[in-house]
Amino acid sequence: xxxxxxxxxxxxxxxxxxxxxxxxxxxxxxxxxxxxxxxxxxxxxxxxxxxxxxxxxxxxxxxxxxxxxxxxxxxxxxxxxxxxxxxxxxxxxxxxxxxxxxxxxxxxxxxxxxxxxxxxxxxxxxxxxxxxxxxxxxxxxxxxxxxxxxxxxxxxxxxxxxxxxxxxxxxxxxxxxxxxxxxxxxxxxxxxxxxxxxxxxxxxxxxxxxxxxxxxxxxxxxxxxxxxxxxxxxxxxxxxxxxxxxxxxxxxxxxxxxxxxxxxxxxxxxxxxxxxx
Length: 277
Hints:
Multidrug-efflux Transporter 1 Regulator Bmrr, Chain A, alpha+beta, Arc Repressor Mutant, subunit A
């Protein structure tokens, strides 16, 4: 997995002054561009867009110090619409303007990133592989949002529905359902509940998502969210996938919530990650 990710990182270095080809990312990484972006952000603790922006602003220093290209030309080269927009972004990142760097001022260095496995020190998660039958979830679906906005789906759900009415739709299990859009670093996220009475769910104005039968890695999560969820994902990407040969299948994945204080060190829940070999 890491080999394919790093092959993709090498490709991204070649297109700092042009557009990304999502098909090339898919070919090199084995994941659609949206999924690669999402997994990258978990591994690198920054979004892919942020990483590429920083690399471009770092690479722009080369053009400023080693060539006589005009600042507007450098701005266009790295995707900025104007010299002012480029200078503002450059100063925010480096702390000085392009003209000051050209005049000899110090600047930041942001080197290319290479992903690597981490030594876990013997810490293992009790991960189970289970085949789940098809089921349905009803709730509030937010489409094409930044990952940081996922909690607002729960706010909208509970603003208009009671716990009792939601639990009565099915077996009472609540899910955060993540699906990727075709491109970019945004996701579709549903805050919802298991539903068997779809007519009742539709009467409540809820969106219904049909989930196909699939094989999942069931990941135990313990501790206050969202930090515990993020740590569990990193374990999956850095340890479980490389050691087992599994990969994310691209189907929806689930945050499977339990009762209790979600911000307690003792809170326990699960991730269901759809897998394929």
